[in-house]
Amino acid sequence: MAGEPVNVNEFQELARKVLPKMYYDFFAGGAEDEYTLKENIEAFHRITIQPRILVDVSRIDMSTVILGHKTSAPIILAPSAAHQLAHPEGEVATAGGAAACNVIMGLSFMSTCTVEEVASSCNAVRFFQIYVFKRRDVTEFMVRRAESNGFRAIILTADTPRLGRREADIKNKMISFRLRNFEGLISTDVVSWYQPLWGSACREGHG
Ligand SMILES: Cc1cc2nc3c(=O)[nH]c(=O)nc-3n(C[C@H](O)[C@H](O)[C@H](O)COP(=O)(O)O)c2cc1C
């Protein structure tokens, strides 16, 4: 690729070149045959934006209000785990980007920077993502901790009672990153990606 990346696809290509394969596959891969992953992209291709023409575009304003918070565009950074696998500054840098663009930062409970580190690093409006764990005390503790660190809403993820069977991670023998937000709360030993959290620690199943 010549020069600076100019779109998301080119950033992805750059990431593929610089990241260790295990980490690139973690960020880019999906579960099983990756039908849903492909469909997520295809779905966007089916949406077209219809331009309005011969209108005044001298002041373009995409700002809106989400849960009472003004944002420069209807964008919330989707919570995603382990940004330090991609860059040493991790979620602190991501939140800084959100603050610079005045959009909302969604922080995963599986962040590699702690809730406190992200909170003290910038003034982006922050939402905190969590699951309902079997250990309700852990869930409650994390919600209160987010609240006391200035997070303004909880993003409750409900679609992962079990982690998908991510075949690239299996092949790469993906190592789980340290769950720093949980240190002192549950065992955060670095183990195979498939044992940890999803089993013993706490996810609420539907059974
Ligand atoms: C590498 C990666 C890690 C993710 N980690 C989380 C997570 O920790 N918590 C969560 O609720 N969703 C997580 N997600 C899901 C995203 O928040 C989002 O819902 C999903 O990627 C669908 O949006 P997209 O089609 O724009 O990628 C993750 C997604 C990716 C790609």
From TrEMBL:
PROSITE patterns: FMN_HYDROXY_ACID_DH_2. Signal peptide: none annotated. Its cofactor is FMN. Residues 1-207 form the FMN hydroxy acid dehydrogenase domain. Keywords: Oxidoreductase. One of its GO terms (molecular function) is oxidoreductase activity. The keyword Transport does not apply. It holds the Pfam family FMN_dh. PANTHER family: (S)-2-HYDROXY-ACID OXIDASE, S -2-HYDROXY-ACID OXIDASE-RELATED. This is FMN hydroxy acid dehydrogenase domain-containing protein.
